[in-house]
Structure formats: structure tokens, C-alpha cells
Amino acid sequence: MNAFTAVFLAALAVSVGLETWLNLRQLAHLRAHRSAVPPGFTDRVSPTVHRRGADYTIARTRLAIAATGLDAALLLGWTAGGGLDLLDRAWNTLDLAAPLAGAGVIASALLLSALLRLPLAACRRFAVDARFGLNRTTPRLFATDALTKGLLLAGAAAPMAALVLWSMDAAGSLRWPVAWVLWTAFVVVRTWAYPGLVAPLFNRFTPLPDDGVRKRIAALLKRCDLRLGEVAVMDGSRRSAHGNASVAGIGRGKRVVLLDTLVEGLDPDEIAAVLAHELGHLKCRHIAKHLAVTAVASLGCLMLLGWLAARPGFFAGLGMDRPSPQAALALLLLSLPTLAVLAKPLLAAVSRRFEFEADAFAARHVNPRLLVRALEKLYRTNAESLSSDPIYSTFHHSHPPPLTRIARLAETASG
Question: Mean pLDDT over residues 255-260, rounded?
């Protein structure tokens, strides 16, 4: 057996085994704590609501185990199964210029992978979320969303891949640094373009309808010394009953978005508290910091890929008969989501730190009890479990555990 084949299969086995073990730990933890509301919440969360959150998380965790298996099977099919090599051969029969054929390989591999994952996504929407009253997506809307995402992927991935491959060919020995620069530029442009160009393809955005909320927001922005182009309400209720808020974009294109389900479920003071948290992300420059972390991580990945691609037997060990830059990039894009499990704790820790910083910022500008109250309502609305396995949480949760987060805010409020 090729040494690279052995290393790849071992890495895949470790990744799948670790993910499965983490999910099984989470299932065991949820079942063990399903019937007991955590101390400190017994007067605010009913046993029925707590059990619903645990049951919903259990159902999603079971689906995550299936997703782990599916992703591993797809990756094996692309590599050891020869799928990527077959795709590469098919595109080469079209007698296109090398960058165009390579772009076709990468884009079609990503599109086919997304298509093969659609049944599991449909199961989550129409089986799991629907069972708990959280799904509002119709089959037609689901299909329209999938088609739009596919067109966006093809429209962005193919030209970007062609540009990267052409630049790599022209750069010679500097091909991998050039690929990194172009990829980083693409990520920055995508972040800038998403709020104004991409998101409106899926949702409608309208100004806040309540004058009282707008006045509170204006006062909050003045206290925070922030200028914001827009606070928009998104029609998230077309697809889900989940409530949420987010901040997106960079430069003048940045936007704070409140889902209509959140606006309907919170009072004006609670909405202002949630907005203060999102403003904290802007004030602390978390989007820029996240882009920097992404840039560093992608540089490391491309440096490793460049080193591996130069080793004899690398491509053959992963099912490719013909070494090529497009094969290397496709292998990276297809394998990274499955094999990068060991990097998850670091990335999750960075994200949780940002969330704590945004909470601390909010607590300085609004009464932290209002944010606590808003979070408790959102946990109930979203059927979130208040309790998670600590090791699972370390790997998977980009937000602090509810108990920890609320306890820290409550301590701030009483301090």
C-alpha cells in the first residue's frame, strides 16, 4: 500500500472515530440530564421546555452521526474510489485550456458533493425540525434555495478556480503563495459582498417597523459611539421558527440583521440588548479578526499542500493518476471539512472568546439582565438544550454554553 494511502486512511479513521465518539458522548450527556432542569433555572425554565430542548438536540446529534458517515463515504469515493480522477479525465477530454478544465474539475466536484448531501439536509428540515415545530420551509422553497446556492457556487467557484490555476501556472515556484493571496482576497470580497448582494437572493430585508425600538437603537448607537448604515429585519420566518441576530459585512457594507421571529418574540428593551451584543462584535472588530484567523489557517493549509504535492506518490496514494494543481486544490477543499476535526477546539475557542467580548460590551451599554432575559427566551424559542457534554462543547460550540454565558452576565448585573 502507498504510504500516503495509509496515512490518509488512518487520518480519516481518526477523524471519523473522534467525531462519532464526541457525538455519542453528547447523546449520553443529554439523555442523562434530560429530566433535570439545571440549578439556577428551575424558576425560569419548565421541565417540559427543558425536555423539548434536550430531545431536539438529541435528534440533531443523531443526524450529525449520519452526516459524519456520509462525509467519510464521499471523501473515500473521491479519493480511493477514483471519483476525482474520473472527473479530471472527463474534463480533459473536452480539450479546454488547462485553467478552464481545472476549474471545471473543482467546481463540479463541489457541486456534486453538495448535491449528494441534499437528502440529509432535507431530513433535518422536514423530519427533525418539523417534528419540533421549527420548520416553515416548503419543499418548493427548499428546492429553490438549493438551486440558487448551486448556481452561486458554480458562478463563484469556477471563475475563482480558473484565476487561481492560471496565476499558479504563471507564478512558477511561487504558485502556492500566489494561491493564498488570491484566496484571501476572495474571502474578503465575499465577506463584503454577502450582505448587499448575496443575502437578498434568499431573503427580504426591511427596516425595523417599531418607532420605539428605533429610538432605543438610536440612543444605543450614540452611547456606543457607533455609526451603522442599517439595522434590518430579515424574513427568517419563511424558513424557520428559530430566532437569531447577526452582524455581517465589512466597510460601508456592514449590516446588523435581526430575524423577524426574534423581533416578534422579544420586547423593545430586549431587542436593544441583543443589538448591543451585535454592536459589540463590530466595536471589537471581530469580523476583521475572524478574517485574519481564516487567512492564517488557509496559509498553513496551502503550505502543507504545496509540500505534499511535491512528494512522489502523493497523488497516486489519493487515487489520482495525473498530478495537477487542480487535483491538489480539489483534494484540499473536499478533505478539509472531514480531516480538520483536530483544529475545531482552537477555532471554537476563538469564536467563544469573541462572544464573551460582545456580551461584556453589551453589559456596559445596557442592563445585562435584559440580555439574560432575551437569551433565555431565545433558548426556549430555538429549543436549545441548556446542558451539553463539556468535551463535545469544546469541539463544536462556537458560542459559550448557555449556563456559563448567562451566569457570567448575571454576575456582571449583580456586581
Answer: 88
Domain containing residue 208: 1-415
| Side chain identity, residue 106 | I
- For the whole model, what pTM was predicted? 0.91
| Other beta carbons less than 10 A from residue 218's beta carbon | 11
What is the total residue count of the chain? 415
How do residues 34-74 score in pLDDT, each as one tens digit?
988 887 777 778 889 889 999 999 999 999 999 999 999 99
Query: For the chain, what is the domain count?
Result: 1
SS (H, E, C) the chain: CCHHHHHHHHHHHHHHHHHHHHHHHHHHHHHHHCCCCCCCCCCCCCHHHHHHHHHHHHHHHHHHHHHHHHHHHHHHHHCCCCHHHHHHHHHHCCCCCHHHHHHHHHHHHHHHHHHHHHHHHHHHHHHHHHHCCCECCCHHHHHHHHHHHHHHHHHHHHHHHHHHHHHHHHHHHHHHHHHHHHHHHHHHHHHHHHHHHHHHHCCCEEECCCHHHHHHHHHHHHHHCCCCCCEEEECHHHCECCCCEEEECCHHHCEEEEEHHHHHHCCHHHHHHHHHHHHHHHHCCHHHHHHHHHHHHHHHHHHHHHHHHCCCCHHHHCCCCCCCHHHHHHHHHHHHHHHHHHHHHHHHHHHHHHHHHHHHHHHHHCCHHHHHHHHHHHHHHCCCCCCCCHHHHHHHCCCCCHHHHHHHHHHHHHC
Cα distance between residue 111 and residue 151, in whole Å: 9
